Amino acid sequence: MEVPGTENESAKEKVKRPEFIIIDNTQEYIHGSHEEFRIPEEELLTPETSRNPIAIRILCLVGLFFGALFGIGIFVGAVVSVLYAALLLFRNHTANDRAVRFCTLSRHALVIVVGLIIAIFSPTLGFALLLLYFSMKGTSRDREVLKRTLKKVL
Fold first, then answer.
1. Residue 75 is part of which domain span?
2. What is the pTM of this model?
3. Short-list 141, 135, 81, 140, CA closest to 105
4. Total domains present in the chain
5. What are phi and psi of 78, to 5 degrees?
């Protein structure tokens, strides 16, 4: 027959206690001094190093400016090529292919502009959306380039 107090004592023995506790970037240890767990001050994240730098946002803003100019030019080219293909009643395959290419380029330019607008506020999210779109909508040649790039990075 078990004594009611012994079951509680065996449960206390099974509890694993942490070796140290980090509170507000200071280290207070339970079991004495453990120097191998000490984090150097320069490796701690400070508000200056944990935020996204302003330089990447300025780069996105400059890229947005040039992307918008390119997008406007491509959109005008798409409208002209579609009107030209419509003038030929869509019977000229060369004009039709050119219209399709310009429409595809204008769609890509729109995605780049939207991605850069998002990247100004959140660079990680903006670049992730661009990478996701182009990895899913690209041609097989583009996918091979993406695979080789990611293999080098990872």
1. 52-153
2. 0.58
3. 81
4. 2
5. -65, -40
CA distance 152 to 150: 5
Residue 34's pLDDT is: 53
Please tell me whether residues 36 and 65 are part of one structural domain: no
Same domain, 60 and 111: yes
pLDDT at 64: 94
Instruction: Report how far residue 142's alpha carbon sits from residue 135's, in angstroms, rounded to the nearest whole number.
Output: 8
Cα distances from 106 to residues 22, 57, 92, in angstroms, run: 52, 24, 21
| 62 & 123 share domain | yes
Q: Specify whether 81 is located in the same domain as 146.
A: yes
Q: Tell me the DSSP string of 78-137.
A: HHHHHHHHHHTTT--HHHHHHHHHHHHHHHHHHHHHHHHHHHHH-HHHHHHHHHHHHHHH
The number of angstroms, rounded, from the C-alpha of 149 to the middle of its chain's C-alpha atoms is 15
Same-domain pairing of 42 and 116? no
Residue-wise pLDDT for 64-113, tens only, equals 999 999 999 999 999 999 999 999 999 999 999 999 999 999 998 999 99
Tell whether 97 and 138 lie within a shared domain. Answer: yes
Residue whose entry in the numeric block shows the structure tokens 């767990």: 37
